[in-house]
């Protein structure tokens, strides 16, 4: 019974602080309760608690840290438009710029290279979005 109380007690800081280590200790406490339920002695219960908790921390924590540092795989908003192809509607150059059709919408655009000119009907690639203007190559 004490192991289950300890598991609940360790689950509370897990929810409040969002620190996964508390959850791993809570699982260790449940493993200790299972050991007690199967008739294991106090020393065996503590050893199972420690072994399960340390094993979870040693295995799960590095995996969680590795995934925490990754950026999302799904780009949205203007980030999703970078690298897309567009069709030139009005002449696009590096100075005044022009218009392109990008993802079904008409955007103002300018060429990345100031000396480059793109004529209507040409396909261009979006390098970046600056405000409401697409920079194309």
TrEMBL record:
Under Gene3D superfamilies, the record lists: Nucleic acid-binding proteins
**Top-level taxonomic group:** Bacteria
> Gene Ontology cellular component?
plasma membrane
**Where in the cell?**
Membrane
Q: Where is the signal peptide?
A: none
Give the bilayer topology: Multi-pass membrane protein
Report TM segments. 43-64
Which residues does the UniProt record annotate as the domain NfeD-like C-terminal?
79-136
Where does this protein have coiled-coil stretches?
none
Keyword Isomerase among UniProt keywords = no
Keyword terms: Membrane, Transmembrane, Transmembrane helix
Write the protein's name: NfeD family protein
What organism does the UniProt record list as the source? Streptomyces auratus AGR0001
């Amino acid at each position: 019974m004490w192991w289950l109380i300890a598991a609940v007690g360790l689950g509370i800081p897990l929810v409040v602080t969002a620190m996964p280590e508390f959850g791993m200790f809570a699982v260790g406490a449940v493993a200790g309760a299972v050991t007690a339920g199967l008739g294991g002695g106090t020393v065996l219960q503590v050893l199972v608690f420690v072994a399960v908790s340390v094993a979870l921390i040693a295995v799960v924590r590095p995996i969680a840290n590795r995934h925490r540092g990754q950026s999302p795989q799904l780009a949205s908003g203007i980030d999703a438009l970078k690298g897309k192809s567009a069709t030139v509607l009005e002449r696009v150059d590096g100075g005044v710029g022009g218009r392109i059709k990008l993802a079904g919408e008409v955007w103002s655009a300018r060429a990345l290279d100031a000396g480059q000119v793109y004529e209507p009907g040409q396909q261009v690639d979006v390098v970046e979005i600056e405000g409401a203007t697409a920079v194309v190559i």
